[in-house]
Amino acid sequence: MSKLPQIGTSIFTVMSKMANEHNAINLSQGFPNFPVDERLTSIVARLATENVHQYTPMSGYPPLLNKIAKLILDSYKRVVQPETEILVTAGATQGIFTTIQALIKANEEVIILDPSYDCYEAPVLLCNAHAIRVPLNDDYTPNWEIIEKACSIKTRMIIINNPHNPTGKILAEADFIKLEKILEKYPDLLVLSDEVYEYITFEEKHISAHTRQELLNRCIMISSFGKSFHITGWKIGYVVAPEHLMIEIKKVHQFLVFSVNSISQVAISEYLDIVDVTKLGKFYQEKRDYFKKLLEKSRFELKPCEGTYFQVASYKSISDEDDVTFCKRLITEYGVAAIPISTFYANGKDLKLIRFCFAKDNATLEAAAERLCNI
Ligand code: PMP
Ligand code: GLN
């Protein structure tokens, strides 16, 4: 008997596998295809011959914890205690899983806003808790009235993802004010803020949960170096939480992984001294705009994208197939892979929308756009 009968293979695995099998240009799973900063790769090459190959302390390599605290101070003017409030994890995915396992009890409820990234529900179900899927508005802003109606004393956590995968939407200050109003009514309600794309926003500035005074004592913040440094395969990220929650999170972490890959922790701690994360937004904004321009003559209608490296597009004027069928045909007939947006909804809502990843070099974007313009 399956413990997770409703969970299948992740759509990112399915689509990337199919893209490889058909030799398609892979704009489905979100990963960059341009080279990693040479300054980072040369740090790794040097470290390979140094004495950095044994366990780090359980919560992370101490200099890295200090650098993360400095990054948060520089980015958001928030003072975080490295030893007690930061945990280095094997990617954001492990941070999210560990947090949910540590803090959610059987029969409690966790609110997940649809469309939602795929790694939130399974850890909730494994706690024998309930994932309450609440739809975002049509423009992908949260519907705080519906969210409030979904809250009760059983609700233990709301998960927000800002900037948002797959839609590229970012939260406004008004959203935080409404969220904080709801939290006032429920003193035990926690917020898990998945901000893995925190440095990838465009015209509007990212508002981090780190900057919201009312949230700090009950918010668990998740980030990933995979997105910020173009190294998704390194699987390294971190969790920031107030000490009373972090004590519980570390109890699970120590038996899930104990500590994270040492060489990547040392390398990132050195790299943080020289890298400028504030440049990332402009870098991806240019990619977004270039991809948009390349698709101007196509029959895809591109939706607004305020952050992340994903572009949602409607194919309504091309086909009335459901989005999964359309994405499969896009691979087999046109040689481009994308992600069907219906897979981000609990009820599989088909809006004829697909997601392209534009974290690609210009040659790849051009080749993909040429194919997409011929549909
Ligand atoms: N959250 C979101 C919204 C994501 O898009 C991703 C994957 N890119 C993750 C979490 C997982 O990040 P990681 O690869 O660091 O585990
Ligand atoms: N976050 C990536 C995406 O949205 C996928 C990561 C994964 O494959 N698990 O495409």
From TrEMBL:
Entry cofactors: pyridoxal 5'-phosphate
Superkingdom as given in the UniProt entry: Bacteria
The Aminotransferase class I/classII large domain, residue ranges: 24-372
A molecular function (GO) term: kynurenine-oxoglutarate transaminase activity
Keywords, ordered alphabetically: Aminotransferase, Pyridoxal phosphate, Transferase
One Pfam family named in its UniProt record: Aminotran_1_2
Keyword Cytoplasm attributed: no
GO cellular component, one term: cytoplasm
PANTHER family found in the cross-reference section: FI04487P
UniProt record similarity statement: Belongs to the class-I pyridoxal-phosphate-dependent aminotransferase family.
Protein name: Methionine aminotransferase
Protein species of origin: Flavobacterium frigoritolerans
